[in-house]
Each structure stands twice: as structure tokens, then as C-alpha cells.
Amino acid sequence: MEHKVFDHTVKQSISFRPFDLNRDFPSVFKWMHESHVIPYWQLNFPKEELFQHMKKAVHDQDQCLYIGLLNGQPMSYWEAYWVKGDVVEGSYPAEPFDQGIHLLIGEKDYLGKGLALPLLRAMVNVQFRHKATQRVIAEPDYRNKKMIHVFEKCGFKQMKPIQLPDKKAMLMFCERDVYEKRWPHVYS
């Protein structure tokens, strides 16, 4: 199912469609090898190894993978996941319907244009469409100050540094009430 909104702040259409391994792998492979992505994702694997990694991710019932599009152009990759059962679950007292998010803007042409916040805001909106979800979490690499700042602008709050198997991260929470108060009319 595709999710689409028109973001009035950037006057552009933002949409997310389910990741299709055959269709989207070439783009994700390219993006995972971009210099701005490598330090934070560490998935700059050889083609076959990354393909197997992505194949496993597609079949993980606890997450949904998306390609983010701006005005119909694929330019970002997203993972929306359930915290219960994820490695981050033990980092805080997780509620049953907490969701988490991972993202990357893959296409360099879209960097530095103020798009990260509108894209993130749109995906969090998708996650809060699940009525039982009251919290969306993020755990960006603690060195990624730009993304931590974007998460904060969206409504996330820094909770504490945590150690995950692949990185030291900053655990961040976005509560539904905070998000809805901050962005009541963005898509109306």
C-alpha cells in the first residue's frame, strides 16, 4: 500500500511505497555505497551479500521496508519496525505497540535542501496511523548530529545513549500527543 501526502511546507508530494527487492535493490545497493551513508548504515557490502541481507529483511514480519519518493522520484529508504522483538527492546521499558524507524536519503541531489524533516514527519504520520501506537522511537548513531537535530525538530526527545550490537546510539522518543500538537495542520 502506498502512502502519499502533499507537504505544504516544501510544496512537494511525499510518498512511500513498499520496498520491492527486484525493483529497488539496484538503488539501495547504490545508496548503501554513498559516502554520506556508509558511516551510519555500515551496509556497503558486496552486491550478493547485500542482496541476501535485504532478502532477509523483506521477510522479517516485524518490519516494513519502504522506498521514499519526492514528486514520484525514488530518493530514500525507510525501515519501520515494531520495537517488541527488536534488539533495541531491552534498552527501555517498551510498550507493546511502540514502533521504530530507520532512514536514509540516498540520492545526493536531495541532501542539504531541508527535506529530511518533511520526509521524517510524513513517515511518523504513517506510523501513527496505527491507532495503538503511542510512541515512535529512533536510535540514530550518536555521531550523527544532523539527524539527531532533525528528529528533535520533528518532535523526538533525546532519552539516553545506548549501545546496540552495531553502534553507539542516541535513543529518542516521539510521543503521539507531542507529534500531534506540533503538526496539527501540516497535511490538511
From TrEMBL:
Fetch the PANTHER family from UniProt.
LYSINE N-ACYLTRANSFERASE C17G9.06C-RELATED
Spell out the SUPFAM superfamilies in the cross-references: Acyl-CoA N-acyltransferases (Nat)
**Entry superkingdom:** Bacteria
What protein am I looking at?
Lysine N-acyltransferase MbtK
Record's function text: Acyltransferase required for the direct transfer of medium- to long-chain fatty acyl moieties from a carrier protein (MbtL) on to the epsilon-amino group of lysine residue in the mycobactin core.
Alphabetical list of InterPro entries matching this protein: Acyl_CoA_acyltransferase, Acyltransferase_MbtK/IucB-like, GNAT_dom
The N-acetyltransferase domain sits at: 14-177
Q: Which residues form a coiled coil?
A: none
Q: Does the keyword Translocase apply?
A: no
Q: In which pathway does it act?
A: Siderophore biosynthesis
Q: Which keywords does this chain's UniProt record carry?
A: Antibiotic resistance
